[in-house]
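Possible regression after last week's pipeline update?

I re-ran a chain I had predicted before the update to compare outputs. Posting the input and the new output here so someone can diff against the archived version. Not blocking, just want to make sure nothing changed silently.
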Amino acid sequence: MRRHAHALARRALGPAYPRALKRWRGGQGAWRSRRVAAVTRRFVAWHGLTVSGGPFAGLVYPDQEPLTLAPKLLGIYERELHPAIEAAIAAQPDVIVNVGAADGYYAVGLARRCPDATVIAYEADARQRELCRRVAAANGVQIDIRGTAGPGDLDGAALVVMDCEGCERALLQPLPATVIVELHDFLDPGVGDAIAARFADTHTVVLVPTAPQPPANELLLSEYRPGPMRWAVITPR
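New output (post-update):
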């Protein structure tokens, strides 16, 4: 039925169909965001704004702005990485670089768990940088928040946590650090295998697949992935 409706619209609208479809999908996105915000308000009223589990338990959010707030508050966000995060913290890194810091979940969480470390957070989006600052202030930690990361900005890091939406091939070169990187093969086909090969001579590379995501109607717990993905956990030998 949905395919038939799209076919009718394509015939009726002709060249205007792609633009109309984009507008419609944008409206669907706005509707979804409003629905998530409403459900999140009810969840926060019950749970509160303190992370209750996972490696960053005790982290506090100043408000409910992040779209993926509920999984973070429950401590189940990117739970596939919890063993790698705990191992990285146990190594007591002195310099931590978080590329694609967004709301600061990792940057602030790691600053709380590694109070003697220097934490540098790179985030290209100005609104997310401001949110990251507010999350850092709410948790009483000092982190160095910067804009877009470039070549050389990872030098000196002992731990790199990266989620840069497809820029990992350009930014990641072999360096004597532990690297936990989300791989965006759907944006840059083959990037995961390329990164693994790039570090193979000097590091142990473990590819970690995403676990099954919640059903589409469970918007509150969604991490909003386009499909199955994976991370690379890269550890110096």
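Follow-up from reviewer: compared with the archived run. Residues 1-9, 20-28 have pLDDT under 50 and may be disordered. Marking as no regression found.
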